[in-house]
TrEMBL record:
Positions of transmembrane segments: 12-32, 38-67, 79-100, 112-134
Keywords per UniProt: Cell projection, Cilium, Cilium biogenesis/degradation, Glycoprotein, Membrane, Transmembrane, Transmembrane helix, Vacuole
Species lineage: Eukaryota, Metazoa, Ecdysozoa, Arthropoda, Hexapoda
Subcellular location(s) per record: Cell projection, Cilium; Vacuole membrane
Organism: Nicrophorus vespilloides
Ranges in a coiled coil: none
Protein name: Transmembrane protein 138
Highest taxon, organism lineage: Eukaryota
Role: Required for ciliogenesis.
Length: 160
């Protein structure tokens, strides 16, 4: 299989842009809390970007020689934590934004910034840098040409 570095650069650039969208929406969504329709659009775009980012990462996995040779377990072992963090972050983000949109109709700010909501909000904001780190690391690792070459993966894995 011929390795195309331009393809890796393009996919990685798209993945970085998707992470940047997520950072920007996390940063600026609170300032638009009075505008329900803008918040809803932000949240839909963010969830779409998270799904697209995970899809691109999985597509990168599926195009490797390791996956095509049937050694899915090796890829799963290397990237299991990243996949779990991506799914967990998506669920956290979606639940938080549903909660925000449901409490937006509350006129009382105490109901909006209740202790459970604030705890969940902080948890989502603390998990986001972890998601960014692991996602970017996995996106960079999957560009390694060794995943696309016909090597003796079973032998190399048993030596490690």
């Amino acid at each position: 299989m011929k390795i195309n570095p331009k393809r890796f650069k393009l996919i990685f650039a798209i993945q970085v842009v998707l992470i940047l969208f997520d950072v920007l929406i996390n940063t600026f969504s609170i300032s638009y809390k009075k505008y329900h329709s803008i918040l809803l659009i932000f949240f839909i775009v963010q969830d779409a970007c998270l799904i697209l980012a995970l899809s691109l990462l999985l597509l990168s996995f599926f195009s490797t020689y390791v996956f095509q040779a049937g050694l899915v377990e090796l890829l799963y072992d290397k990237f299991r934590l990243t996949i779990y963090i991506c799914i967990f972050y998506f669920i956290l983000t979606t639940v938080l934004y549903i909660w925000i949109l449901c409490t937006e109709t509350e006129p009382n700010l105490d109901a909006y910034w209740s202790a459970p909501f604030l705890t969940f909000f902080i948890l989502q904001r603390l998990v986001s840098p972890t998601y960014y780190y692991f996602y970017k690391r996995a996106a960079m690792k999957i560009c390694d040409p060794r995943f696309y070459e016909g090597m003796d993966w079973d032998h190399n894995q048993s030596n490690q």
